[in-house]
Amino acid sequence: MSANPDVATSRPPAGPQGHTPHTGSANPFVAMAANLRTSGIYIAFVVVVLLFALLTDGLSLSPGNVTNIVLQYSYVLVLAIGMLMIIVAGHIDLSVGSVVALTGAVSAKLVIGSGQPWWVGVAAALGVGLLIGAWQGFWVAFVGIPAFIVTLAGMLLFRGLTFYVLDNVSLSPFPAEYTKIATGFLNGLLGGNGYDAFTLFIGAFAVAGYAVSQFRTRRARIRYEQTVDAMPLFVLRLVAVAAVVMAFAWLLATSRGLPVVLIILAVLILGYSVVMKSSVFGRQVYAIGGNLSAAQLSGVNVRMVNFWLFVNMGFLAAVAGVIFSSRSNGAQPSAGNSFELDAIAAAFIGGAAVTGGVGTIPGAMVGALLVGVISNGMQLLNVDQSLQQVIKGLVLLLAVAFDVWNKRRGGVR
Question: In the chain, is it the N or the C terminus that has fewer CB atoms within a 10 Å radius of its CB?
Protein backbone atom coordinates (compact mmCIF):
# COMPACT_ATOMS: atom_id res chain seq x y z
CA MET A 1 0.00 0.00 0.00
CA SER A 2 1.34 3.39 -0.93
CA ALA A 3 2.04 5.81 1.89
CA ASN A 4 0.95 8.69 -0.29
CA PRO A 5 -2.64 8.47 -1.56
CA ASP A 6 -2.06 11.23 -4.08
CA VAL A 7 -0.20 8.71 -6.27
CA ALA A 8 -3.17 7.20 -8.02
CA THR A 9 -1.35 4.52 -10.00
CA SER A 10 1.80 2.52 -9.61
CA ARG A 11 4.78 2.74 -11.91
CA PRO A 12 4.64 0.20 -14.74
CA PRO A 13 7.55 -2.12 -15.44
CA ALA A 14 10.51 -0.32 -16.92
CA GLY A 15 10.62 -0.56 -20.68
CA PRO A 16 13.27 0.16 -23.28
CA GLN A 17 14.66 3.62 -23.72
CA GLY A 18 12.11 5.91 -25.32
CA HIS A 19 9.20 3.97 -23.81
CA THR A 20 5.97 5.91 -24.22
CA PRO A 21 4.15 6.36 -20.88
CA HIS A 22 0.58 5.20 -20.45
CA THR A 23 -2.12 7.79 -21.10
CA GLY A 24 -5.19 6.30 -19.53
CA SER A 25 -6.00 2.72 -18.65
CA ALA A 26 -6.52 -0.26 -20.92
CA ASN A 27 -9.82 -0.80 -19.13
CA PRO A 28 -11.74 2.46 -18.58
CA PHE A 29 -13.98 0.81 -15.98
CA VAL A 30 -10.96 -0.18 -13.91
CA ALA A 31 -9.63 3.36 -14.14
CA MET A 32 -13.00 4.73 -13.13
CA ALA A 33 -13.17 2.42 -10.12
CA ALA A 34 -9.64 3.34 -9.09
CA ASN A 35 -10.45 7.03 -9.14
CA LEU A 36 -13.90 6.72 -7.55
CA ARG A 37 -12.59 7.34 -4.06
CA THR A 38 -10.94 10.64 -4.94
CA SER A 39 -13.44 11.91 -7.49
CA GLY A 40 -16.69 10.73 -5.91
CA ILE A 41 -16.75 13.41 -3.22
CA TYR A 42 -16.34 16.18 -5.82
CA ILE A 43 -19.15 14.78 -7.94
CA ALA A 44 -21.36 14.46 -4.85
CA PHE A 45 -20.58 18.06 -3.90
CA VAL A 46 -21.61 19.39 -7.32
CA VAL A 47 -24.79 17.31 -7.26
CA VAL A 48 -25.75 18.59 -3.78
CA VAL A 49 -25.06 22.21 -4.76
CA LEU A 50 -27.22 21.91 -7.88
CA LEU A 51 -29.96 20.09 -5.95
CA PHE A 52 -30.30 22.83 -3.35
CA ALA A 53 -30.08 25.51 -6.04
CA LEU A 54 -33.08 23.86 -7.68
CA LEU A 55 -35.01 23.39 -4.43
CA THR A 56 -34.43 26.98 -3.29
CA ASP A 57 -35.06 28.56 -6.71
CA GLY A 58 -31.44 29.70 -6.92
CA LEU A 59 -31.34 31.33 -3.48
CA SER A 60 -28.59 29.00 -2.25
CA LEU A 61 -26.32 30.24 -5.06
CA SER A 62 -27.05 33.92 -4.58
CA PRO A 63 -23.91 36.05 -3.99
CA GLY A 64 -24.95 36.95 -0.45
CA ASN A 65 -25.65 33.36 0.57
CA VAL A 66 -22.39 32.04 -0.90
CA THR A 67 -20.49 34.69 1.05
CA ASN A 68 -22.36 33.74 4.23
CA ILE A 69 -21.43 30.07 3.77
CA VAL A 70 -17.75 31.02 3.62
CA LEU A 71 -18.01 33.15 6.74
CA GLN A 72 -20.22 30.76 8.69
CA TYR A 73 -18.25 27.54 8.13
CA SER A 74 -14.69 28.87 7.97
CA TYR A 75 -13.86 27.52 11.43
CA VAL A 76 -14.95 24.01 10.38
CA LEU A 77 -12.58 24.15 7.42
CA VAL A 78 -9.68 25.13 9.67
CA LEU A 79 -10.44 22.34 12.14
CA ALA A 80 -10.86 19.83 9.31
CA ILE A 81 -7.27 20.42 8.15
CA GLY A 82 -5.83 19.38 11.49
CA MET A 83 -8.37 16.61 12.03
CA LEU A 84 -7.56 15.09 8.64
CA MET A 85 -3.90 14.85 9.59
CA ILE A 86 -4.77 13.30 12.95
CA ILE A 87 -7.07 10.72 11.34
CA VAL A 88 -4.56 9.85 8.60
CA ALA A 89 -2.10 8.96 11.37
CA GLY A 90 -4.70 6.66 12.92
CA HIS A 91 -5.80 8.89 15.82
CA ILE A 92 -8.82 11.02 16.73
CA ASP A 93 -9.19 14.30 18.62
CA LEU A 94 -12.38 14.87 20.61
CA SER A 95 -11.18 18.03 22.35
CA VAL A 96 -11.04 20.57 19.52
CA GLY A 97 -14.43 22.13 20.35
CA SER A 98 -13.34 22.78 23.93
CA VAL A 99 -10.00 24.17 22.71
CA VAL A 100 -11.87 26.56 20.41
CA ALA A 101 -13.88 27.75 23.41
CA LEU A 102 -10.86 28.12 25.71
CA THR A 103 -8.67 29.99 23.23
CA GLY A 104 -11.53 32.35 22.38
CA ALA A 105 -12.10 32.90 26.10
CA VAL A 106 -8.43 33.71 26.72
CA SER A 107 -8.45 36.21 23.88
CA ALA A 108 -11.66 37.83 25.13
CA LYS A 109 -10.36 38.03 28.70
CA LEU A 110 -7.29 39.95 27.54
CA VAL A 111 -8.85 42.16 24.86
CA ILE A 112 -12.28 42.84 26.35
CA GLY A 113 -11.67 42.23 30.03
CA SER A 114 -8.21 43.81 30.34
CA GLY A 115 -8.21 46.29 27.45
CA GLN A 116 -5.19 44.79 25.66
CA PRO A 117 -4.65 45.39 21.92
CA TRP A 118 -6.47 42.97 19.63
CA TRP A 119 -3.25 41.34 18.43
CA VAL A 120 -2.28 40.47 22.01
CA GLY A 121 -5.45 38.42 22.31
CA VAL A 122 -4.71 36.64 19.02
CA ALA A 123 -1.13 35.86 20.08
CA ALA A 124 -2.26 34.61 23.49
CA ALA A 125 -4.91 32.36 21.94
CA LEU A 126 -2.38 30.83 19.55
CA GLY A 127 0.09 30.34 22.39
CA VAL A 128 -2.52 28.57 24.52
CA GLY A 129 -3.42 26.37 21.57
CA LEU A 130 0.22 25.33 21.11
CA LEU A 131 0.56 24.53 24.83
CA ILE A 132 -2.62 22.44 24.75
CA GLY A 133 -1.34 20.57 21.71
CA ALA A 134 1.98 19.89 23.43
CA TRP A 135 0.15 18.69 26.56
CA GLN A 136 -1.99 16.21 24.66
CA GLY A 137 0.85 15.20 22.36
CA PHE A 138 2.98 14.31 25.38
CA TRP A 139 0.39 11.88 26.76
CA VAL A 140 -0.27 10.30 23.38
CA ALA A 141 3.27 10.12 21.99
CA PHE A 142 5.47 9.59 25.02
CA VAL A 143 3.22 8.04 27.67
CA GLY A 144 1.34 5.90 25.17
CA ILE A 145 -2.24 6.65 26.20
CA PRO A 146 -4.64 6.27 23.24
CA ALA A 147 -5.59 9.60 21.67
CA PHE A 148 -9.27 8.85 22.15
CA ILE A 149 -8.83 8.78 25.94
CA VAL A 150 -6.43 11.73 26.11
CA THR A 151 -8.63 14.01 24.02
CA LEU A 152 -11.81 12.86 25.76
CA ALA A 153 -10.20 13.96 29.01
CA GLY A 154 -9.11 17.15 27.28
CA MET A 155 -12.65 17.84 26.13
CA LEU A 156 -13.76 17.91 29.76
CA LEU A 157 -10.65 19.62 31.10
CA PHE A 158 -10.56 22.52 28.63
CA ARG A 159 -14.31 23.07 28.83
CA GLY A 160 -13.97 23.43 32.58
CA LEU A 161 -11.09 25.88 32.13
CA THR A 162 -13.26 27.88 29.74
CA PHE A 163 -15.92 28.29 32.43
CA TYR A 164 -13.20 29.28 34.89
CA VAL A 165 -11.60 31.88 32.58
CA LEU A 166 -14.96 33.45 31.73
CA ASP A 167 -16.34 33.07 35.26
CA ASN A 168 -19.41 31.43 33.69
CA VAL A 169 -20.42 34.61 31.82
CA SER A 170 -20.07 35.78 28.23
CA LEU A 171 -17.71 38.59 27.23
CA SER A 172 -18.40 41.01 24.37
CA PRO A 173 -17.89 43.01 22.22
CA PHE A 174 -14.46 42.85 20.63
CA PRO A 175 -12.94 45.94 19.00
CA ALA A 176 -13.56 46.41 15.29
CA GLU A 177 -10.03 45.33 14.35
CA TYR A 178 -10.58 41.93 15.94
CA THR A 179 -13.97 41.30 14.34
CA LYS A 180 -12.54 42.04 10.89
CA ILE A 181 -10.58 38.77 11.10
CA ALA A 182 -13.76 36.80 10.40
CA THR A 183 -16.10 39.44 8.99
CA GLY A 184 -13.81 41.82 7.08
CA PHE A 185 -13.52 42.09 3.29
CA LEU A 186 -10.94 43.25 0.78
CA ASN A 187 -12.68 45.14 -2.01
CA GLY A 188 -12.28 48.15 -4.21
CA LEU A 189 -8.52 47.70 -4.63
CA LEU A 190 -8.79 47.38 -8.41
CA GLY A 191 -12.15 49.05 -8.90
CA GLY A 192 -15.04 47.49 -10.78
CA ASN A 193 -18.56 48.53 -11.75
CA GLY A 194 -21.04 46.47 -9.76
CA TYR A 195 -18.39 43.90 -8.92
CA ASP A 196 -15.00 43.76 -7.22
CA ALA A 197 -12.25 43.36 -9.80
CA PHE A 198 -9.68 42.40 -7.15
CA THR A 199 -11.68 39.29 -6.21
CA LEU A 200 -11.85 38.23 -9.86
CA PHE A 201 -8.11 38.81 -10.20
CA ILE A 202 -7.42 36.56 -7.22
CA GLY A 203 -9.71 33.90 -8.69
CA ALA A 204 -7.90 34.03 -12.04
CA PHE A 205 -4.54 33.88 -10.25
CA ALA A 206 -5.68 30.78 -8.36
CA VAL A 207 -6.79 29.11 -11.61
CA ALA A 208 -3.46 29.87 -13.25
CA GLY A 209 -1.56 28.49 -10.28
CA TYR A 210 -3.64 25.32 -10.27
CA ALA A 211 -3.11 24.80 -14.00
CA VAL A 212 0.66 25.21 -13.71
CA SER A 213 0.76 22.80 -10.78
CA GLN A 214 -1.25 20.17 -12.66
CA PHE A 215 0.92 20.44 -15.77
CA ARG A 216 4.06 20.04 -13.66
CA THR A 217 2.58 17.00 -11.92
CA ARG A 218 1.61 15.49 -15.26
CA ARG A 219 5.12 15.98 -16.67
CA ALA A 220 6.66 14.41 -13.56
CA ARG A 221 4.42 11.35 -13.84
CA ILE A 222 5.25 10.96 -17.52
CA ARG A 223 8.96 11.25 -16.71
CA TYR A 224 8.64 8.39 -14.21
CA GLU A 225 6.50 6.38 -16.66
CA GLN A 226 3.37 6.55 -14.52
CA THR A 227 -0.11 6.33 -15.96
CA VAL A 228 -1.70 9.71 -16.69
CA ASP A 229 -5.04 10.81 -18.09
CA ALA A 230 -5.36 11.35 -21.82
CA MET A 231 -4.76 14.98 -22.75
CA PRO A 232 -8.39 15.75 -23.71
CA LEU A 233 -9.61 14.46 -20.33
CA PHE A 234 -6.82 16.33 -18.55
CA VAL A 235 -7.76 19.61 -20.26
CA LEU A 236 -11.45 19.00 -19.61
CA ARG A 237 -10.75 18.63 -15.89
CA LEU A 238 -8.76 21.88 -15.85
CA VAL A 239 -11.56 23.71 -17.65
CA ALA A 240 -14.14 22.36 -15.19
CA VAL A 241 -12.08 23.46 -12.17
CA ALA A 242 -11.47 26.88 -13.74
CA ALA A 243 -15.19 27.33 -14.39
CA VAL A 244 -16.11 26.45 -10.80
CA VAL A 245 -13.44 28.71 -9.29
CA MET A 246 -14.30 31.69 -11.48
CA ALA A 247 -18.03 31.24 -10.85
CA PHE A 248 -17.30 31.23 -7.12
CA ALA A 249 -15.11 34.32 -7.48
CA TRP A 250 -17.85 36.09 -9.44
CA LEU A 251 -20.41 35.40 -6.73
CA LEU A 252 -18.06 36.84 -4.10
CA ALA A 253 -17.17 39.79 -6.33
CA THR A 254 -20.81 40.73 -6.81
CA SER A 255 -21.52 40.50 -3.07
CA ARG A 256 -19.05 42.15 -0.68
CA GLY A 257 -15.72 41.22 -2.20
CA LEU A 258 -13.00 38.90 -0.95
CA PRO A 259 -13.45 37.82 2.69
CA VAL A 260 -10.35 38.19 4.87
CA VAL A 261 -11.03 34.81 6.41
CA LEU A 262 -10.93 33.22 2.94
CA ILE A 263 -7.37 34.51 2.52
CA ILE A 264 -6.44 32.89 5.85
CA LEU A 265 -8.07 29.65 4.72
CA ALA A 266 -6.30 29.71 1.35
CA VAL A 267 -2.90 30.12 3.00
CA LEU A 268 -3.60 27.24 5.40
CA ILE A 269 -5.00 24.93 2.72
CA LEU A 270 -2.13 25.53 0.30
CA GLY A 271 0.51 25.27 3.00
CA TYR A 272 -0.81 22.09 4.56
CA SER A 273 -1.49 20.50 1.17
CA VAL A 274 2.17 20.93 0.31
CA VAL A 275 3.21 19.55 3.70
CA MET A 276 1.05 16.43 3.37
CA LYS A 277 1.85 15.80 -0.28
CA SER A 278 5.48 16.78 -0.72
CA SER A 279 7.28 16.92 2.64
CA VAL A 280 9.05 14.19 4.59
CA PHE A 281 6.75 14.87 7.56
CA GLY A 282 3.65 14.35 5.43
CA ARG A 283 4.93 11.06 4.02
CA GLN A 284 5.73 9.91 7.53
CA VAL A 285 2.17 10.69 8.66
CA TYR A 286 0.77 8.55 5.84
CA ALA A 287 3.28 5.80 6.62
CA ILE A 288 2.31 5.69 10.31
CA GLY A 289 -1.38 5.49 9.52
CA GLY A 290 -0.92 3.00 6.69
CA ASN A 291 1.37 0.54 8.47
CA LEU A 292 2.76 1.45 11.87
CA SER A 293 5.17 -1.48 12.09
CA ALA A 294 6.61 -0.80 8.65
CA ALA A 295 7.02 2.88 9.51
CA GLN A 296 8.94 2.00 12.67
CA LEU A 297 11.17 -0.45 10.80
CA SER A 298 11.81 2.25 8.19
CA GLY A 299 13.25 4.54 10.85
CA VAL A 300 10.31 6.92 11.25
CA ASN A 301 10.38 8.60 14.67
CA VAL A 302 6.77 7.76 15.42
CA ARG A 303 6.72 9.47 18.81
CA MET A 304 7.90 12.82 17.51
CA VAL A 305 5.57 12.72 14.51
CA ASN A 306 2.60 12.03 16.77
CA PHE A 307 3.70 14.73 19.19
CA TRP A 308 3.91 17.40 16.47
CA LEU A 309 0.60 16.28 14.99
CA PHE A 310 -1.16 17.17 18.23
CA VAL A 311 0.82 20.41 18.62
CA ASN A 312 -0.38 21.30 15.12
CA MET A 313 -3.96 20.38 16.00
CA GLY A 314 -3.80 22.65 19.04
CA PHE A 315 -2.54 25.50 16.87
CA LEU A 316 -5.28 25.06 14.26
CA ALA A 317 -7.93 24.78 16.97
CA ALA A 318 -6.66 28.10 18.32
CA VAL A 319 -6.90 29.66 14.85
CA ALA A 320 -10.49 28.38 14.66
CA GLY A 321 -11.09 29.80 18.15
CA VAL A 322 -9.94 33.25 17.06
CA ILE A 323 -12.08 33.08 13.90
CA PHE A 324 -15.17 31.90 15.78
CA SER A 325 -14.86 34.47 18.56
CA SER A 326 -14.27 37.16 15.95
CA ARG A 327 -17.40 36.18 14.05
CA SER A 328 -19.40 35.87 17.29
CA ASN A 329 -17.99 39.22 18.48
CA GLY A 330 -17.45 37.70 21.91
CA ALA A 331 -16.68 34.57 23.91
CA GLN A 332 -19.24 32.25 25.48
CA PRO A 333 -18.73 29.33 27.89
CA SER A 334 -20.71 27.06 25.55
CA ALA A 335 -18.79 28.01 22.39
CA GLY A 336 -17.45 25.14 20.31
CA ASN A 337 -20.06 22.54 21.26
CA SER A 338 -19.98 19.68 18.73
CA PHE A 339 -17.28 21.35 16.63
CA GLU A 340 -15.18 18.21 16.92
CA LEU A 341 -18.00 16.21 15.33
CA ASP A 342 -18.18 18.64 12.40
CA ALA A 343 -14.42 18.34 11.83
CA ILE A 344 -14.45 14.54 12.09
CA ALA A 345 -17.41 14.32 9.73
CA ALA A 346 -15.66 16.58 7.20
CA ALA A 347 -12.57 14.36 7.20
CA PHE A 348 -14.48 11.10 6.79
CA ILE A 349 -16.94 12.46 4.22
CA GLY A 350 -13.93 13.87 2.34
CA GLY A 351 -12.41 10.41 1.91
CA ALA A 352 -10.35 9.71 5.04
CA ALA A 353 -10.28 6.05 6.05
CA VAL A 354 -11.37 4.94 9.50
CA THR A 355 -8.20 2.85 9.79
CA GLY A 356 -5.84 5.68 8.86
CA GLY A 357 -3.32 6.07 6.06
CA VAL A 358 -5.76 7.61 3.57
CA GLY A 359 -7.05 11.14 3.07
CA THR A 360 -6.19 14.48 1.50
CA ILE A 361 -6.52 18.10 2.56
CA PRO A 362 -8.61 19.05 -0.52
CA GLY A 363 -10.91 16.10 0.15
CA ALA A 364 -11.46 17.20 3.75
CA MET A 365 -12.20 20.75 2.57
CA VAL A 366 -14.83 19.50 0.13
CA GLY A 367 -16.24 17.29 2.88
CA ALA A 368 -16.56 20.30 5.19
CA LEU A 369 -18.14 22.38 2.42
CA LEU A 370 -20.56 19.56 1.65
CA VAL A 371 -21.72 19.50 5.26
CA GLY A 372 -21.98 23.30 5.18
CA VAL A 373 -23.98 23.37 1.96
CA ILE A 374 -26.36 20.71 3.28
CA SER A 375 -26.88 22.59 6.55
CA ASN A 376 -27.31 25.92 4.78
CA GLY A 377 -29.69 24.47 2.22
CA MET A 378 -31.87 22.87 4.88
CA GLN A 379 -31.97 26.16 6.78
CA LEU A 380 -33.12 27.97 3.64
CA LEU A 381 -35.84 25.33 3.22
CA ASN A 382 -36.88 25.74 6.89
CA VAL A 383 -36.22 22.08 7.64
CA ASP A 384 -36.77 21.23 11.30
CA GLN A 385 -33.56 21.26 13.35
CA SER A 386 -34.04 17.69 14.54
CA LEU A 387 -34.40 16.46 10.95
CA GLN A 388 -31.25 18.35 9.98
CA GLN A 389 -29.29 16.37 12.56
CA VAL A 390 -30.76 13.11 11.26
CA ILE A 391 -29.77 13.91 7.68
CA LYS A 392 -26.22 14.95 8.60
CA GLY A 393 -25.85 11.77 10.65
CA LEU A 394 -26.96 9.66 7.70
CA VAL A 395 -24.51 11.45 5.38
CA LEU A 396 -21.63 10.63 7.74
CA LEU A 397 -22.77 7.01 8.13
CA LEU A 398 -23.00 6.53 4.36
CA ALA A 399 -19.54 8.06 3.85
CA VAL A 400 -17.93 5.65 6.31
CA ALA A 401 -19.96 2.75 4.89
CA PHE A 402 -18.58 3.57 1.45
CA ASP A 403 -15.04 3.49 2.88
CA VAL A 404 -15.63 0.04 4.38
CA TRP A 405 -17.24 -1.27 1.19
CA ASN A 406 -14.45 0.16 -0.95
CA LYS A 407 -11.79 -1.67 1.09
CA ARG A 408 -13.68 -4.96 1.15
CA ARG A 409 -13.88 -5.03 -2.61
CA GLY A 410 -10.17 -4.26 -2.85
CA GLY A 411 -10.53 -0.58 -3.70
CA VAL A 412 -7.75 1.95 -3.94
CA ARG A 413 -6.09 2.90 -0.66
Answer: N
